[in-house]
Every structure is written in structure tokens, then in C-alpha cells.
Design a protein that fits this description.
binds D-glutamic acid; Rossmann fold; six-stranded parallel β-sheet; alpha/beta; four-stranded parallel β-sheet
């Protein structure tokens, strides 16, 4: 039996990834789940993010999904390894759960000439050091400078990302990042919410600094993954349909989602746990 690809985030951010997946793999079906009732994840403990993410993954499996993408850096940083190594072998050895940190780390070093990259992310992602660990595998010469941006997700989730008040926090975190090194020539937006702040971030970037978002990187990587794993691709249904679920209020989700996804959507409510 075939089923949609599951796409998960703590809230709306994963929609910036889903938008690119849909562009590159339009024939596939997707189910998006935002755990809005318990977002943000960025400041929560390892144990909590792991527990919440595992509940979401099991929910996708209950919907029949064979492949789930954690379109959330925080969940990828804090839960993915445990789920892949400890849970999947018992609960669903034939199913796959993938994250966004590895595909981003596989290519990020190609963007830098100075070998100094900035990672802007949630506190949880920064504290996990996942980017330092992953990038060192693919680009051992690249220096990684991390900056936690705890105010960015609340600004975005509350629709303040294009208002003048956001400038203070955009400039503030960029200043902190560049105070670590003036040699940074590439910045990864290592939180799937952050593309909404792209215009403002660009307006404060020193000339020549590249700003990299994850959507097309993750989509490129999924295209390759499905080519290499036809046994997984065969289990993915292909009618070009997308369903949206949230653990919070469906109408509120519908209103906010279009700024992340670029078009109007219809959402349903679901409970986890
Ligand atoms: N979108 C999530 C990420 O990529 C973080 C949002 C949150 O803090 O819940 O890390």
C-alpha cells in the first residue's frame, strides 16, 4: 500500500521546506503536521523534543506513511538520531525518518570561499552542536560560527517578521554573529522558520555575504534519496495531493500558513499523544 510522505515541524516553519518539495517532486502526495499547540520547540529540553517528535512520527506511521521528513532543525538535532537508532528498529524497521541537518551540511561548505560559515538557529539546535559535528565530516577545513536567535521564531509565528520592531532583533543577532568572526562569507538559515525574515536579514548583511535557505537543498537531497532508494519511492503515493494537519486550531493555522507556503490551504485538527 502506498501513502503520502510525512512532513513535520513544530509549527509553520516546515511549510518553507514543503513548498520546495512540492516544486521538485510535484507528483508525490504529502501530509504536513505542525505541532503548533506545543511550539516552539527551540527552547525545550532534549527529552521533551525527543518525546514530542516521536509522538509525531508514530502519528505519521498510523497514517500509513513510509517516509517522514523532520522539516525542523530542532527536532532533527534533538530527536532524529534516537528515533533512527533506538525506535525505528523496533516500531517500524521498513520505514524511514530523515532530517534537514545532514543534507544542509553536505553542501554548505561549497558556498564559502573564506571557509568561515555562520549558522543561525534556535538555542536547541545551537546547543546540540549538530552542525559543527556534521559539517566537520564533509568539510573538515570549514570553521563554524553558531548564533542562537531565540526571538526570531516568536516574531515570525506572531506575524511581526516584516514590521519595524523585527529590525532590532535581526540586526542584534547578526552583529553578535559577526563579532565572532569578520571572515564569515556564508550564513545558513538553520531554522525552517527563518526564510520569512530573509528580506530583513539581507538588508543588514555586509556586502558579499551569501544567505542560504534550506528548502531547495532538502528538496534536491530528497530527489536523490528517492532515486537511490526505489523501494521507498514505490511506497510513496503520487496523486499530487497535500493534506495539512495542526495540533492547534485549524482556522488559525490556515490564516498563518499562506505566508510560509505561498498559497491558501485547508487544514484539519489532530491530537497527538
Ligand atoms: N522550525 C524549527 C527549526 O527548524 C524551530 C521552531 C521552534 O523553535 O519550534 O528549528
Amino acid at each position: 500500500m502506498s501513502a503520502p510522505i510525512g512532513v513535520f515541524d513544530s509549527g509553520y516553519g516546515g511549510l518553507t521546506i514543503l513548498k520546495e518539495l512540492k516544486k521538485q517532486l510535484p507528483q508525490h502526495d504529502y501530509i504536513y503536521l505542525g505541532d503548533n499547540a506545543r511550539a516552539p520547540y527551540g527552547t525545550r529540553s532534549f527529552e521533551t523534543v525527543y518525546q514530542y517528535t516521536l509522538e509525531a512520527v508514530k502519528w505519521f506511521f498510523d497514517q500509513g506513511c513510509s517516509l517522514v521528513i523532520l522539516a525542523c532543525n530542532t527536532a532533527s538535532a534533538k530527536a532524529l538520531r534516537n528515533i533512527q537508532q533506538l525506535d525505528l528498529p523496533h516500531i517500524a524497521p521498513d520505514k524511514r525518518v530523515l532530517g534537514v541537518i545532514r543534507p544542509s551540511s553536505e553542501v554548505l561548505g561549497n558556498y564559502t570561499n573564506s571557509n568561515h560559515v555562520g549558522i543561525m538557529a534556535t538555542l536547541g539546535t545551537v546547543q546540540s552542536d549538530s552542525y559543527i559535528i556534521e559539517l566537520s565530516k564533509f568539510f573538515p577545513k570549514v570553521h563554524v560560527h553558531q548564533q542562537a536567535c531565540p526571538m526570531w521564531v516568536p516574531l515570525i509565528e506572531n506575524g511581526e517578521y516584516d514590521k519595524p520592531g523585527a529590525d532590532y532583533f535581526v540586526k542584534g543577532y547578526l552583529d553578535e554573529l559577526f563579532s565572532q568572526s569578520k571572515d564569515i562569507d556564508t550564513i545558513l538559515l538553520a531554522c525552517t522558520h527563518y526564510p520569512l525574515l530573509e528580506a530583513k536579514i539581507k538588508s543588514y548583511l555586509p556586502e558579499g555575504v551569501k544567505l542560504v535557505s534550506q528548502g531547495d537543498i532538502v528538496a534536491d537531497s530528497l530527489v536523490k534519496y528517492l532515486q537511490i532508494h526505489p523501494e521507498i519511492d514505490q511506497k510513496c503515493s503520487k496523486n499530487g495531493k497535500i493534506q495539512f494537519y495542526t495540533t492547534d486550531n485549524a482556522q488559525t493555522f490556515e490564516k498563518q500558513a499562506s505566508s510560509f507556503f505561498g498559497q491558501k490551504i485547508e487544514a484539519n485538527h489532530t491530537d497527538l499523544a
